[in-house]
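Archive entry. Fields below.
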Amino acid sequence: MTHSLAQIPQWLAEPGLEHFLIISAILFSLGLLAVVTRRNVIMVLMGIELILNAANVNFIAFTRFSTISLEGHLIALFVIILAAAEAAIALAIVLNIYQQFHTVNVDEVSTLRE
Amino acid sequence: MTSDTLIQLALYILFLPLLGFLVLIFFGKRLPRHGDWLGTGILGVTLIFSLIILFVKLLSYPAETFISQFTWIDFGNVPFIGPVSIELGIMLDNLSVIMLVVVALVSFLVHLFSIGYMQGDVRYSRYFAYLGIFSFSMYGIVVTHNFLMMYIFWELVGLSSYLLIGHWYEKKSASNAAMKAFIVNRIGDAGMFIGIMILFVTFTTFTFEKIFDSLAVGTIPFGSEAWLTAAGILIFCGAIGKSAQFPLHVWLPDAMEGPTPVSALIHAATMVAAGVFLIARTFAIMTGDALMVITYIGVITALIGAIIAITQYDIKKVLAYSTISQLGYMVMALGTGAFTAGFFHLVTHASFKAGLFLGSGSVIYAMHHALHKKHDHHTDPQDIRNMGGLKKKMPITYLTFLIFTLAISGVPFTSGFLSKDEILAGTLGFASVTGHYLIPVLAFLVAGMTAFYMFRLLILTFHGEHADKSRESDLHESPSVMTIPLIVFASLSIWIFYSFNPFGAASGWFYSAMERPLSVVPVDVQPVAAEVFNKAVHDVHTVAMILSILIAGLGILFAFAVYHYRKIDADNLSKATGPLYSLSYNKLYFDEMYDKSAIRGTLGLAKISAWFDNTIIDGIVNGSATLTRLWSNFSGRFDNVVIDGFVNFSAYFTGFIGLLLRKFQTGKVQTYIMFVIFSIIIFFFIFRSL
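PREDICTED_STRUCTURE:
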């Protein structure tokens, strides 16, 4: 077992905090990219979900590699609930926008300027 | 008849002419005959009343003075001064009752004469209205018992004189003469006003009696006798103006521009005599020095008038200068202390000089009509060179004129002889007491000159041949309404009315009625005492009488020699005297002198002050305006450029910034997120290094 284990690279065999943080950063960046570049409101919302999940990963990772107890888990759970609520509200807004402008393209909905 | 009745009659005399004036000025044109009967009738009534007052007063109450007065303004007890009140009232003493008759008689007869003379005049009713207000004012001067009313009526006669001189105001010379008379009189009146005020601040009253009484117990203005002398001379200034004394005599000859009856009434008999009356009224307060000034002014005036009268050719101008000369005589007489003689001369002069003027009016009337008939508008109807030979054509006018001329020349058996003789005796007596012998010498000289120029006038007007034969048939005697006054005046120029003795008035009623008032000034400044003076006059009286008859006779003889028999050629005479003649002919250059000095001076002063006003005052005003304009210009520009520039710039700058920032406000959520992220990254880098 040990042998077979030995063939796996060190950084992979024993994943540390940095790995999780990198994953989380990648996830966050992707989410941000989706939020900034996507034209479709639904896609933007999905990007937001990705960002929230990146934050969750961070919480879990810090909880795993620290001596502190379960607060990270708790906050992650809160964030998931919050994300669900946020999605519900956001979708409602999207529906309203669609009713108002007959489109879900964020570029065309630029009335915030006024 | 009681004193109350006399006072009431005097009030009627005073106010009836005023009533006549009011009626004539408002309704004159609508009355039948334009109301001449009304004015004349009222004056007739006042004449009767004044005669009643004269007889009752002189027969029953010769030594009493009746005063009726009421308090007009009561100032109460004024702090530091004491009780002050102004009383108005009338006073009847012998002086005023005699003067009342003089005024009423002359005024009535002039009214009568004017009915003929002024017939067909454009402002016939207004003329009679003005005569009415003149009579009212003159009566006021005569009966008043205080200085204030005296001054008010004094100005009113000045006003009526102004109105009547300017009766034919379409003529430039007439309106100028009216203004000249008014302005020249004002100079004298200003002095009179100051004199009255000196007395008022001292005695806190205007009433003659109270002032005399306070003076008699030793109160004098500002505790100094010089002030009393000054007050006397200043009051005399009023007389200098009104009575045309040197140096303010220049208005009287010009005043002849008025209608001739007006000249007779105002400028010969009554108004100009008001100055003499004023001196008589205030005689008691005159100090010896003041009377000396009055004497010299009088004698200078008499001389000047006589000198100028000799060479004049206008019949009225001769009479005007003769009036000035005779007024000088009266003033001189009062100054020397010959009080009764001076006032007596006023009375006699009033009748014969009014008669002379009315006679000249009659002549002018005849000349005017004769010239009018021939359509000759170039010949002057008043120039005696155009007359001559009127004796046959106008016998009544000639005879009366002759009597007047004899009277003014001082020929015995005339009223003029009586008064003039007394005056000359007075000056001689005065000289023998004080040593001022120049006064009688000049007075006798003037008497001779008067006889000469009056007979010159008479001869040139009435004797010889008429200047233009073709005119002779058109010359007629004036209507009876004009000759009757002449006859009345002529009869009043006879001695009998004043004294039964033709060679001395001292025994007549006039001398017993009029006595020189006692002087109330302090003893050391009193004039020559009456007893001393009377004694001196008595001593020289016979000498004076013989001298005056001789001198008058000489003057008359000389006039006949030159103008009637032409033994001496008048032209040669005037050439021989050369500069003296031209001096006299040009009225001693008084008008020119005043034109060069007073009038030019006033004009110069006016020009200087106008220049000052235009240049300096206006310059300051305009300069400050210019300065203000410049400043506001600058501040306007500052406002427009700097302040507005700042504001505009800030607005522009804000707009520019807005324009820039506007680019960031895309309204796209994603752009905003980008900004947030980049900002966070930037902040991250900034705060990391801290």
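CURATOR_NOTE: The longest helix of chain A spans residues 71-101.
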